[in-house]
Amino acid sequence: MNKATRQAVIAGNWKMNKTRPEAKALIEEMIPLVKDADCGVIICVPYTNLETAIAATKGTNIKVGAENCHWAKSGAFTAEVSADMLKEVGVEYVIIGHSERRQYFGETDVTVNQRVRAALDAGLKVILCVGELLNEREQGITEEICSMQTKIALAGVSKEEMKDIIIAYEPVWAIGTGKTATADQADEVCGAIRGVIAKLYDDATAQATTIQYGGSMNAKNADELLGKVNVDGGLIGGASLKAPDFAAIIAAASK
Fold first, then answer.
1. What band does 151 get if pLDDT is binned at 50, 70 and 90?
2. Residues that bind substrate, according to the entry (predicted)?
């Protein structure tokens, strides 16, 4: 982390977990554990939990995000939710381009870009996910894949709008598998993504952009991962569903 130029941010991605009562209980358990955090704290929850989470976190240092949004403002898109709908509810952040959306629901680099644009236009902040498949890492094209995904996703995004973008590097092979990129691997790819931003915009923008690592970060490996200069936080899956584990990662990011 380099807190001199950018904020460290820990964001929880709850995925498809927790009913509203369960969400309320988990947030109430989290609040006292993370109240003194010296980093940004975000929880991204299922649509049904958004109003519960916003109410439960009111007056705290925990921000609330959604897990996706559609690119259209409205229309015949059954079961989808627009960025304007999220903004109206009180959401501040939205995850876009998560590997599970790409893998299971047909997201492409182009639709990711459209969703990023829609979110920014609605006044939301974006957690943009990029990352390579296992066979792509084995072929030695990790940097090329992450560079391409980053460039396409940020098409039409201005330098000024980059202040509302967090990038999460998620090696797809490390999500929900228990496998984790080594601290050096995470730092290398996060650094390469920062290099892409410098080329797209300038070095100052690159140095100001928070780049998280997402991929089985947990209470045990957080210190080592967050000790790397280009790893500015984490997008946390399973560990974000356990308040003590999430708090331990936040404590590591607060050092």
1. very high
2. 13-15, 176, 216, 237-238
| 70 included as an active-site residue | no
Annotated binding site: 13-15, 176, 216, 237-238
Report CA 88 to chain centroid distance, whole Å. 21
| % the chain with pLDDT above 90 | 93
Q: Which fold has domain 9-253?
A: TIM Barrel (3.20.20)
Its pTM surpasses 0.90: yes
Does the pLDDT value for residue 176 go beyond 80?
Answer: no
